[in-house]
């Protein structure tokens, strides 16, 4: 992020952020989330013909979708709806990332998790190298950022292809029955996988309309802080999906799911609380002065990400039970509340409250899912512990604004005190984690 904020103005950063965010928003609609069907139907399957048929059908759907999107982009290009160069970049980004998603998901489905992890590292490293080349050395600005992103997806896709040679792709294996099965499973998942980006994008456009382009640039930078949580969540969700599918038929699944969820929310609240401790430090020392006020947007954005991840956790129970229509319904409710709330909070209170609508929508979505998924698997919740963690986090937010004019040292001291309270509430989890890590370390040495 410091690299981008240094070499891109707030307006330029706002433009590229809108492009990448819109890409993330459209991806589930372009791929129809067929990668989730690849994961659910291939995992554990020993029938090679079935595996090839599922993947070939998913690949066929993706090809058709990318072709349809090409026609849409040509129309946009013809009528000059947007900058033609940006339309070209945007199409390449959508096209390449669509195929990267289905090939990388195949690696997970056939238990090539180490290769999948290496692919993620390669993509990050290539993005970093290309960023340095095109942004720092060649100073290409927006073009450099987008070219770097596209090339990182190209390298990742090639790597995935080289490690997916065991799968047979043939149009002869595309059966209408398989297509119907994939689409009926995947289609209801679209709102779920696009919701965070739908809410985030709608927030951007509301900020843009009511506050201005510079505020949108600040929002773009502030949105990167919750991504620290998403880094951990992405890794966890990838492992959790597989575990949830494998343990779904187990007699102890309720105990297992409840235990995992408790450890999950304790860790995330610790991380979220710590982010508020270092929030103003980040915007004081690591980000250009032009973006300093973005710190005000971070607390509610982080809170929204917390409940988005909690909702995603419970959403996996639906997919494990093939009840993807319930995912659709709960996602639609949450998205509607989030988007509607943005039109209330942002015009009235300004960009600092841009994440409040998302937090409210995801919280209500989580409540609906918790009640509904208990009909499938009863997930126990320590209500007192969970309530206290929420209260302490909200107190941290309030203290940030109360001490907004105070010195950085004072703000950090106050936030550190509240963080210690979170540590105290989570002490059993921390002790268990450290004991487990110690045993693992001693076992290796």
UniProtKB/TrEMBL annotation:
It comes from the Bacteria. PANTHER family: O-ANTIGEN TRANSPORTER-RELATED, PST FAMILY PREDICTED COLANIC ACID TRANSPORTER. The lineage of its organism: Bacteria, Pseudomonadati, Pseudomonadota, Gammaproteobacteria, Enterobacterales. The keyword Kinase does not apply. It is found in: Cell membrane. The chain crosses the membrane at residues 55-80, 86-103, 115-138, 144-162, 182-199, 264-286, 298-320, 327-346, 352-370, 382-403, 409-434. InterPro entries: Poly_Biosynth_Transport, Polysacc_synth. The keyword Cell membrane applies. Keywords: Cell membrane, Membrane, Transmembrane, Transmembrane helix. GO terms for cellular component: plasma membrane. It is a multi-pass membrane protein. It comes from Klebsiella sp. 1702. This is Putative O-antigen transporter.
